[in-house]
Every structure is written in structure tokens, then in C-alpha cells.
Amino acid sequence: MKRKSDSETATSSSTGGGSESLGAEFDVFLNFRRPDTRLNFTDHLYHSLDGAGIRVFLDDEDIRKGEKIEGELLHAINNSKFYVPIFSRDFASSAWCLRKLAHMVECSRRSTEKVILPIFFDVDPYDVKLRTGLYVDALKRHEERCGYDEVQRWKKALTEVASINGWDCKDTGQGKLIKLFTDEVSMRLGRGVRVLPDHLVGIDIHVQNVMLMLGKGTLDVRFIIIHGMGGIGKTTLAKVVFNRIASQFDGCSFLSDIPQFSQQNKIVKLQKRLLSDILKSKSIKVHDTDFGINMIRGRCRNKKVLIVLDNLDRRDQLGKLAEKCEWFGSGSRIIVTTRDIGIFKINNNNASMQVYHFYGMKKMDEHYAIQLFSRYAFESDAPPREYDKITREIVKITDRLPLSLVVIGSSLYCESEEVWDDVLAKLKKMPPKEVREVLKRFREGTCSQREY
Predict the structure, then answer these.
(1) SS (H, E, C) the chain
(2) Total domain count for the chain?
(3) Both 205 and 262 in a single domain?
(4) Domain end point (choices 166, 189, 212)
């Protein structure tokens, strides 16, 4: 087997036995029939991906003892982000290749983070869809040895993967295709990199709920509106979801600081950033907002996109960036975070109700709030016994808002009891609204902890 992992230091490519440690998860898992492509296309593809800093697992053994995918190989498949089956004329003659393909399909069904990127080397998608005799005949020969049920499983996997828009070597030279493929994987890996807080506490249930609203695999265009008071964790939730699903889309864009750009009449800059992200071009020019609107709805209407509009505070901002479903291709998702749900004035009879899906962020449970505060104040999941009472008081005063807990916890790290008492006394004297304002300024670096 060949693999590229963080643990490799001396060389970027290595060959080893089954006992070698895998290290970190992989970016790409290559599935191919060795006699067909190992010494030509697959070798060039592997080194192209490897040279781009992409961690690749290349299963270099076509014939295995036993029938199960297990051990190191199972771990590699389960912990890869992209699955790349390379369909050659004799791919279906290998039970091992088919077995891996079926497992990849099962993994991708269970997780939106797993993406299959098929390459049709010297076959047509119709062959892989079993509409010609090429793969059908090979599968018939497998039935006697592997059994009817397993072969049916392989057939379903083949037809499902063949329906994915893949890469066809017949239409493009191998060198050009490999470069395009490497660029695409690099881009997909790079765009899901929103920076998250060091400690994520109590957010899993919110992520699960929003993921259900997104409706994996549905072809409609949806708007997910995440709403709630400031500091409650809307942006963090949007970032986690964005990072998790970005690789599923043709283009992605995460737009922050929308009110700031809007106040300065610089929405044009956001339109340009959105178009540059989705069209993967740095040469986009937007002359004015109307020009930008026309470009967005004209250039994005056939693309499946993921857009996050963070901290929207006026309806016209949506209208200039992502107003209507028909601006984007099937399966697109637009995630909006806002404090003011009132900007979406929709009655129950309005057809837009089917487009907008609302998710209200609620306050953290007390035990999660104490855990989050403790992570920053004590670098542990719970406060020391002598700090338990004051911790609970701070959590109560801050109304369990994640932003408040993070800012105050960080400021009190390694401070004396006198400082803790002083901060608590000042917090008690402040109205909740004033507390949030001071915390906001503290986070932006415009005040010090003495102002508490």
C-alpha cells in the first residue's frame, strides 16, 4: 500500500506492510484495478495529489485473502474525505475493487463529509451503469463465487456512483485531467476552513438539527435561517456546518461582517467576494450593485452552491446577495444568521414558507455553560471546588451566552481571587445589555478587564 500521512517525514511516498501506523486521516482514497492503471494513470495521479500536499491512501493490492474489508484498510476508507474510484475496462472483474466501492458508497450515505469523485478511465458511464455488457458480464461471473446478494449490492453501488458527475479521460488528455482533478480536490479541501473556537461545547445537537434541515440529497434550493440573540453562537454553528458540508458543492462562500460593509455602502465588495469564491476566479469585476445582482443570478444559476450570509440585519442585504432560489442551481443551500427574524416577513400562506427553514438558537444548558467557562478559565471541564460558587454566579449573570463565557473565562485565567471578586462585583452592578456591550468591546480589543 502507498499512503501519505502526517507521520511521514523522510519521504512523501512509502510502501509498507499492514502493521504500519496510519497517523492522521486521509484526504483521498484511490480505488483502482492494479493491472489496468497502476503504472500509468493512477501513478501520475497519486504523485500529482501527493505533490500538492494532499494526503493520499493508495491501496496497491488487488488480490486479498479473505472476504472482509478490515484492519488498516477499513480504517483508511472510514477516515478518508474523498473516494476516487478509477473505472477501467476490467474494474468489475475485481471482487476486491467492487467490495471497496460498495463500502465507500455506504460511508458516503452515512456522512455528508464523505464525497465520491469518480474517474472514467477507459469506459463510459453507461458501462458502469450496467447498460452495456462490459460490467454486466463480469458481475455474472462473480455470482457463483460471491453469491447473489453481494453482487446485487455491488450493482447498486456501481449504478449510484456512475450517476455522479465525474471525470472522463476520453474527452481530456490525461495530463490535463490530472491537473484539473488535483486543482479541484485542493480547492475543495481549502474552502472548508473556517476558523473555529478552541473549545466547542454543547453545539453538537444544534449541528444535527441544522443538518436535518439542510436535507441531504434533495434537489430544491433552501434557505436556512439561524436566529437568536447576539453572542448565543449563531456564527460558530454556521462555521461548523459550513466546514462539514462545503465539499459537497460546486462553489462555496462565507460572507462575514455584512452590516459593516452595508453601512459603508460596500455591498459591491461582498458581491465580488461571493462571485470570486463560487466561480474560483480572482479577476471578477463588479461595477455596481445592480451589475453584481445580474452577475450572481446569471453566473450561478447552474451551479450547486453553499453560501453563508453571517449577521444579516436588513432584508435588502439578502436581496443584493442571494435573494431568490432561481439565482442558483439545484441542491443549493443558503445559510443566514441573524438576530432579527422580523426581516423575514412571511405568512403561513406564502409559497416562500417552503423555501425558508428557521432554526432558533436557545441558551446553553447550565452544565454546558459551566463546562465552556471552565475550559477557558481553568483549562478543565469543571471549576475547582473553591471556585464552584463564583463560577455558577458568573454563568447566571451572563445568561449562559457562549460569547460572554468565553470572554470572561479567558480574562480570568490565572488571575487572583481578588480579581475574580472584583469582576463579579462589577458584573452584578451592570444591566444585562450593558454587560453584553462591554463584552463586545472587550472582544474587539477596545477595552480592558478593568472596565468590568
Answers:
(1) CEECCCCCCCCCCCECCCCCCCCCCEEEEEECCHHHHCCCHHHHHHHHHHHCCCCEEECCCCCCCCCCCCHHHHHHHHCEEEEEEEECCCHHHCHHHHHHHHHHHHHHHHCCCCEECCEECCCCHHHHCCCCHHHHHHHHHHHHHHCHHHHHHHHHHHHHHHCCCCEECCCCCHHHHHHHHHHHHHHHHHHCCCCCCCCCCCCHHHHHHHHHHHCCCCCCCEEEEEECCCCCCHHHHHHHHHHHHHHHCCEEEEECCHHHHHHCCCHHHHHHHHHHHHHCCCCCCCCCHHHHHHHHHHHCCCCCEEEEECCCCCHHHHHHHCCCHHHCCCCCEEEEEECCHHHCCCCCCCHHHHCEEEEECCCCCHHHHHHHHHHHHCCCCCCCHHHHHHHHHHHHHCCCCHHHHHHHHHHHCCCCHHHHHHHHHHHHHCCHHHHHHHHHHHHCCCCCHHHC
(2) 3
(3) yes
(4) 189
Q: Note whether 182 and 206 are same-domain residues.
A: no
Instruction: Judge if 79 and 174 occupy the same domain.
Output: yes
Same domain, 370 and 337: no
Residue by residue, pLDDT tens for the chain (452 residues) are 444 443 333 333 332 333 233 334 788 999 999 898 888 899 999 999 988 878 899 876 654 544 566 778 888 898 898 999 999 999 999 998 999 999 999 998 888 778 899 999 989 999 999 999 999 999 999 988 888 899 999 999 999 999 888 888 887 788 889 988 988 888 777 665 666 777 788 888 999 999 999 988 788 999 999 999 888 889 999 998 998 888 788 888 999 889 888 877 788 999 999 998 888 777 788 888 999 999 999 999 999 999 999 999 888 899 999 989 999 999 999 999 999 888 887 655 554 556 889 999 888 899 999 999 999 999 999 999 999 999 999 999 888 888 888 889 988 998 998 999 988 888 888 755 555 565 555 544 444 443 33
Q: Is the pTM of this model over 0.85?
A: no
If asked whether residues 408 and 340 sit together in one domain, one would say no
- Residue numbers of the domain that contains 415: 366-451
